[in-house]
UniProtKB/TrEMBL annotation:
SUPFAM superfamilies: E set domains (SSF81296). It comes from the Bacteria. Residues 9-101 form the Sulphur oxidation protein SoxZ domain. It comes from Pseudoduganella aquatica. InterPro entries: Ig-like_fold, Ig_E-set, SoxZ, SoxZ_dom. The gene is soxZ. This is Thiosulfate oxidation carrier complex protein SoxZ.
Amino acid sequence: MARALIHMPANARKGEVIEIRALVAHPMESGYRPDAGGKLVPRDILTSFTCRYNGVTVFSAELHPAVSANPYIAFFTVATESGTLEFSWQGDHGFAQTETMPITVSNS
């Protein structure tokens, strides 16, 4: 399982715009690079990232071979209610990583 780092506020006011930053450790091999023997190294990339806030998708991205190793994704969303944000990465060779982070939203 890859290591994921997620930075976001644990608490927010209702209606506040919050920044979420996510990074996952993954080598991201494009499939175009030759190995020492001259054969192409098989492609091994992350193909998608999705963030769901209480089950509703608030951000998603399709990833391609040009994305760097250990991709870093930053985006904003509005704090609407307390709950859980679920972060999912999908990739080649059956790679799947899911992490969750709680958020507490107050009315004031």
